């Protein structure tokens, strides 16, 4: 079993106007919802560059097993 880190965006992102996290994404994994951003887990390469750039502290790393 391999453990990897995925990133999710929480409620702090709702109506957030900052896009610094999007600007550093190497693979354009972010997409825009009605009033929030989200990360496409299939595009994300888990580089963690977005996490420290999030001004709203909405991005959270989550450990998940991958079989």
CATH topology: Alpha-Beta Plaits
Low-pLDDT segments, ≥5 res: none
Q: Quickly count the helices.
A: 2
How many strands, which pairing sense, and closed or not: the largest β-sheet? 2 strands, antiparallel
Report the C-alpha radius of gyration, rounded.
12 Å
Helix content: 10-25%
The largest beta-sheet arranges its strands as 1-4
Secondary-structure element series: EHEEHE
How many domain regions?
Answer: 1
- Structural classification: mainly beta
**CATH architectural label:** 2-Layer Sandwich
Overall CATH class: Alpha Beta
Beta-strand percentage range: 25-35%
Mean pLDDT: 87
Judging from the principal axes of the Cα atoms, what is the shape? globular
Function: Ferredoxins are iron-sulfur proteins that transfer electrons in a wide variety of metabolic reactions.
GO molecular function: 4 iron, 4 sulfur cluster binding; electron transfer activity; metal ion binding
Protein name: Ferredoxin
Cofactor: [4Fe-4S] cluster
Structure description:
The mean pLDDT is 87. The protein has a two-stranded antiparallel sheet with strand order 1-4. The protein has a two-stranded antiparallel ribbon with strand order 2-3. β2 and β3 form a beta hairpin. The chain has helices spanning 20-23, 50-53; strands at 2-9, 30-32, 37-39, 59-66. It starts with a strand and ends with a strand. The longest helix has 4 residues, at 20-23. It has one domain: Alpha-Beta Plaits (2-Layer Sandwich), CATH 3.30.70.20. It is mainly β. The chain is globular, with a radius of gyration of 12 Å. Keywords: 4Fe-4S, Electron transport, Iron, Iron-sulfur, Metal-binding, Transport. Residues 35-64 form the 4Fe-4S ferredoxin-type domain. Its cofactor is [4Fe-4S] cluster. This is Ferredoxin. Ferredoxins are iron-sulfur proteins that transfer electrons in a wide variety of metabolic reactions.
């Amino acid at each position: 079993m391999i453990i990897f880190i995925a990133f999710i965006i929480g409620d702090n992102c709702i109506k957030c106007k900052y896009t610094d996290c999007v600007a550093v994404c190497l693979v354009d994994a972010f997409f825009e919802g009605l009033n929030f951003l989200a990360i496409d887990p299939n595009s994300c390469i888990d580089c963690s560059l977005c996490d420290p750039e999030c001004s709203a502290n909405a991005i959270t790393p989550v450990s998940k097993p991958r079989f």
